[in-house]
Amino acid sequence: MYNIPEIISDATADALKELYDANIAMDKISVQETRKEFEGDYTIVVFPFLKTSKKNVGDTAQEIGEFLTKTYPAIKQYSIVKGFLNLHFDDRFLVDQFKVISFQKDYGKQAQKNEKVVLEYCGPNTNKALHFGHVRNMMVGYATANILQAVGYKVHKVNILNDRGIAICKSMLTWQKFANGTTPESEGIKGDLFVSNYYVKFAEVHKQQTEALLTKGLNPKDAQAKAPIQQEARAMLRKWEAGDKATLALWEKMNNWVYAGFEETYKRLGVDFEKNYYESKTYELGKAIVAKGLKSGLFYKKEDGSVWVDLTEDGLDEKILLRSDGTSVYLTQDLGTAQERYKDFKMDQSIYVVADEQNYHFKVLQLILQKLKKPYADGIFHLAYGMVELPGGAKMKSREGTKVDADDLLDEMVEKAKIETNKLGKIEDFTETEKATLFHQIGLGAMKYFILKVHPKKRMVFDPEQSIDLVGDTGPFIQYAYVRTQALMRARKGKTIEIEQIQLEESEKNLIKLLDIYPAKIEAAAKNFDPSEVANFAYDLAKSFNKFYADLPILKGTDDKTKNFRLQLSQQVGAILLSAMTLLGIQLPQRM
RNA sequence: GGCCUAGUAGCUCAACUGGAUAGAGCAGCUGCCUUCUAAGCAGCAGGUUUCAGGUUCGAGUCCUGACUGGGUCACCA
Is there contact between A467 and strand B, defined as CB under 7 Å from any strand atom? Predict the structure, then answer.
């Protein structure tokens, strides 16, 4: 099905062919909604056609206008302002277009394609709790997966757990030293937070010891490396790599605490993964790939035994792939993980949702895989999102305690939703469970929308002092518009409705025009990997609906024909709001 | 320093990928609830789109150069 701007583009192409015998590229034809300070519904920009018409702007516009009004009865009249041809549509055409939309099942979604996508998101380290940056990652990843699914891709959502290395050893070490055998259960603390606390504890002790060494005259770098606790952590890492049983057992125990904690947060956020990958399991495979590349001469070994790849011809640097002691690095692990994934899914595309500070890493990763002639190399796409900053440009760092903990933020948002909702006093008849569900929906809706309305690649600022609004351009605003549509549906009592032709008001036309382009919006969002296009569309639609709702009577003071049409329009708006917000992973309540 | 990236109202974000007089929300000020939910609606005020050139019918958008911020260039992940 074509939307109205597409229909107009086609018609314009016909006009150009008929009038000037010219085939013009479709992307030269620009059709937009007429700006509200001018008369008309849609506007064609005629400047690009002047070369083919060989006439001045006014004449060209007039000829096209004449042709269109004569050929298409739906176009009632036209007007020309400068180089812009404004078309006025017959209401009947818009009503018919709306009818078509109403009858569509799964409006906005496309048929299944035969293309598989693996989308990796979240990617936490197992030594610290999830923070706001992870939340952005998860929101962008989850929404993008839904959007790709909506346009027909088969999407596999996967997670990568960075479960090995020196960092987790730090938490393990301080737990051994200071925890006296306590556990998340015994302390009643979420597992990831529990382990995270010992990571912070390590940083504290390390700082003290470093400072002590500094007073003895060591330089800062040496002091950090020679601090006893740092040495112990390194020793522990060596034991882990050597497969020491006790170390592995401790590692497993603490990681499991963390995973249990993560699971809780995933569940609250409503995200899920089809499969988990663990670096501890893929790094060996990565090493094997490196060994093969070494044999084929693609990589080379330095005197100290470390393995490198030279990417200077491609404008990049030399990159290390294996340390001199034979242990693997970040890149090695990602090579292994990619291979493992291809074995599992035979995907056409791999999307990595990872912060933009990793841009260089992914360039290198893809280039190496291309040089290795891996079939999945070209399908790699790094969906880079900007870092979340605190006001004043401060960065969030776990170690320095300047991060916003994901769970704290969720609690805070739900609490805020509760306070504001109770203030309004509209849900006194709800049960406690219903109330709890609603507060969760509103609090999370606000947070998710706050993140998703911003273009992923842009840095965003979050001020923990100010919290997230519930009024204006927010999640609850859209939820509220939906709730209004649902109240109307309850009043309608499920009666089926026949749509008849009526005279359209301005705010009704606006809604039809918005509904008309919803599928195109999803398609653009999928093409650009940009959920914010869906978020902003939902806001526009909600805003237009609120205006419609305020301007026009629906149930009372209308004749049957008008009432039926407005009810049907409201139902369709509700359905599309629900569809769009579901793509974003935001729930909509029936009442609020 | 090299490369990458961004700079739009006091603040947080838009701008259909080059189209008309740059739009929303928050914060500030006015109005609107005895008729469908005021988490709403209408209005006022707020801009030399960092700056300087260029490309063209037309530039917030493309090019060049500055300025400012961020990222990256680890035998960390």
Answer: no
Residue A520's CATH number = 1.10.730.10
Tokens 């891996």, located at residue: A374
- Cβ atoms of A485 and A549 within 8 Å: the answer is no
- Over the stretch A423-477, which tens digit does the pLDDT of each residue have? 999 999 999 999 999 999 999 999 999 999 999 999 998 888 788 999 999 999 9
Question: Contact A272/A157 with Cβ under 8 angstroms?
Answer: yes
Residues 169-208/A with CB within 7 Å of nucleic chain B are none
Q: pLDDT tens, A37-54?
A: 888 999 999 999 998 888
Residue A9: domain span: 4-89
Chain A residues 423-442 within 7 Å (CB) of strand B? 424, 426, 438, 442
Nearest residue for B24, CA–C1': A473
Q: Is the CB of A311 under 7 A from strand B?
A: no
pTM of the predicted model, to two decimals? 0.95
Outline where DSSP puts E strands in A125-240: 154-161
Q: What's the complex ipTM? A: 0.96
Q: Are residues A295 and A414 in the same domain?
A: no
Q: Hey, CA dihedral for A531, A534, A540, A543, is it positive or negative?
A: negative
Closest-lying nucleotide for A318 based on CA to C1': B73
> How many degrees, rounded to 5, is the angle at CA A282 between CA A145 and CA A310?
95
